[in-house]
Amino acid sequence: MKKIYLLFSLITINSISAQNIETINIPKGVVYNYVDNNLNDKAKQLIIKNLEKNKYSILEEHLIVGPELWKRFQKIEKLQKIKGNITFVVDDLKLSGKYSPTLNDTKLIWDEFKKEITGNYKIRKANEHELKYYWSVISFDIDEPLLIVETENHNYILNFLKSNLKLLWLDEAPKLEYHNPIDNKTYTSEGGFKSYRNGQEITSTPMGTKETALEKVVLLSSDLEFKENSSVEDVGLIIDQTKTIFEELFKNSDESGKIMIQFELKKDNNEIEFAVKDAIDMTIMKEFEKKINNTKFPNSKKDPIKLQLIFKVNSFND
């Protein structure tokens, strides 16, 4: 259950009905109220205009800086002098933010934000990852205009008061990164990496049962890349073939650990790599690799795509 407390009074944003709206994917449990496209377009134009030097029409006296952005901005000396500290309590985790009490202070924050918008950027609606993060921090329903200013290094969250199109909240979404121990690369994903268990997408990982089984499947390529280059049937076949070999060899193993298998499906020749964690029986592992490498798996239709299967041997879920 989400537990959030803001240590100050917050303006309540009333919802309105809207026509001609651009819909987005709303995560389960998030309350999100649309406004008319015209109002969102006005907010976009205000952002563009106020990124110019000495433009502040987007601002009013008060502004909230969310915890993810404040982690960086609190290191800026001129912003440290602003009074109005906030503590967000999210699932028992205390996070620091800032509440700007004066227009001059709000301008200082906006100036620092503008300094970071130096290259190409785009303004768009939020994706599911960004909505989940924002919802975890706030204590009110999400009302549009809620816009993302996306740059090469950061995705900033800007939430406006729809009554006057003044900026209420400024933050940034945490980066979604996944460090792959097989190729030692860090992958990033705008919408988040999708993990599956028993054919269902999972958003959290309970400890589960200590057992020898497939723990999860991680897709390292996008949904679009999988749709264009593979099929549900082919991915299912890869999983079933690998599970059969795994269960045959490891079902009676006394050791405990994890096995990661990465498939890079290509048009001609697939590449398969392995990684192990903890005390895997390496004699069995050698035979497992041999059988996997001798198995014919489906290829990609055109471009390479990657997925990982993570197995646990006498272990709990990570």
Automatic annotation (TrEMBL):
Protein name as annotated: Uncharacterized protein
Biological source species: Flavobacterium microcysteis
